[in-house]
Amino acid sequence: MERDKIFLKMLLNQQQENAERWKAEIRSKILKLNEQRDSSEIED
Questions:
Q1: Residue 4 half-sphere exposure, CB side, CA atoms within 13 Å?
Q2: Integer CA distances (angstroms), 8 to 4, 18, 35, 40, in order
Q3: pLDDT digits (tens, 9 = 90+) for 1-44
Q4: 36 Rama sector, left if φ>0, alpha if ψ -120 to 50, beta otherwise
């Protein structure tokens, strides 16, 4: 039982780390897209 708790806690931590990584990647992609959009608006 105790081993299951530890295992679940490890899984949860892993999921949270993955979520943080995804959020960071998505945020940087949005920033890049915004920069591209801003620079293309200037060209028009």
A1: 1
A2: 6, 15, 41, 48
A3: 899 999 999 999 999 999 999 999 999 999 999 999 988 877 65
A4: alpha
pTM of the model: 0.64
Burial letters for 31-43: b for 16+ Cβ neighbours within 10 Å, e otherwise?
A: eeeeeeeeeeeee
Outline where 1-44 has alpha helix (H).
2-43
Tokens of 31: 């920033």
CA–centroid distance for 37 within its chain = 22
